[in-house]
Design brief:
Blueprint: E1 2-8, H1 15-20, E2 30-35, H2 42-48, E3 52-55, H3 60-70, E4 75-78, E5 83-85, H4 89-99, E6 104-111, H5 116-132, E7 141-144, H6 145-150, H7 161-169, E8 174-183, H8 192-207, H9 212-219
Parallel strand pairs: 1-2, 1-4, 2-3, 6-8
Antiparallel strand pairs: 4-7, 5-8, 6-7
Length: 220
């Protein structure tokens, strides 16, 4: 059984497209929406789709952990609320689950923008994943529930919760799936270079030992 965990915070405008991309999911799967007390229509969208909704204090790490704790599946697929999986994803997931119980998988980072800058960023992310073993949460994360628990799962961090988990997994247990996870480019509206440098600065500060609670101020 596959449990798809989606953390949400005022995601009422993006969540419908994400859910539409999941329509090909297996019949015995479930979607768990872990909401950080949204003030928009997020909960209404999820409930109208018949999904399970759990509430958690705001913070992606806490919300992901709460969603995983409520999930009932043998496999967990963590997905951001502004990320859509391209058609055919269910077959890719099924193939990985058949052989990858001791490894975790992530999708190919893709932006919903035709700009050349978006293609350059996608190439940079592909290099980061291939050379450094650092996929981010907007690429999704597919992991067996047992392996998730063995590695300690997501911690209650306001930022870098994805990096914190994949570092504990280690590069040898991470597999890149050659299938697109299409993410909104809205966060780059202030410029690809500016946002990319901000993200890189946050990562550098994290590796330097600065607590994520302080880094999140720069990120936001």
């Amino acid at each position: 059984m596959l449990s798809i965990v989606i953390p949400t915070l005022n995601a009422g405008s993006s969540l419908p497209a994400t859910l539409a991309s999941l329509e090909e999911r297996p019949t015995d799967s479930e979607i768990v929406v872990s909401d950080g007390f949204s003030t928009d229509a997020t909960r209404a969208v999820a409930q109208a789709a018949g999904l399970r909704v759990v509430e958690s204090p705001r913070g992606r790490g806490m919300q992901l952990a709460a969603g995983a704790a409520a999930a009932r599946g043998d496999w967990l697929l963590f997905l951001h609320a502004d990320t859509r999986l391209a058609p055919g994803w269910a077959a890719v997931v099924r193939c990985f689950c058949a052989v990858g119980s001791q490894r975790a998988a992530y999708f190919r980072f893709t932006l919903d923008d035709d700009a050349a800058a978006a293609r350059r960023l996608e190439a940079l992310v592909a290099w980061r994943c291939r050379r450094l073993g650092l996929p981010y949460g907007d690429q999704g994360l597919l992991i067996a529930t047992n392996l998730y628990r063995e590695t300690g799962g997501f911690h209650a961090l306001p930022l870098m919760e994805d990096v914190h988990l994949v570092r504990r997994l280690g590069r040898h247990r991470l597999v890149g799936l050659d299938h697109p996870a299409i993410t909104s480019a809205a966060r780059y509206q202030d410029g690809y270079l500016r946002r990319s440098l901000r993200n890189l600065s946050c990562l550098a500060l994290y590796f330097a030992g600065l607590p994520p609670a302080r880094i999140v101020r720069l990120y936001e």
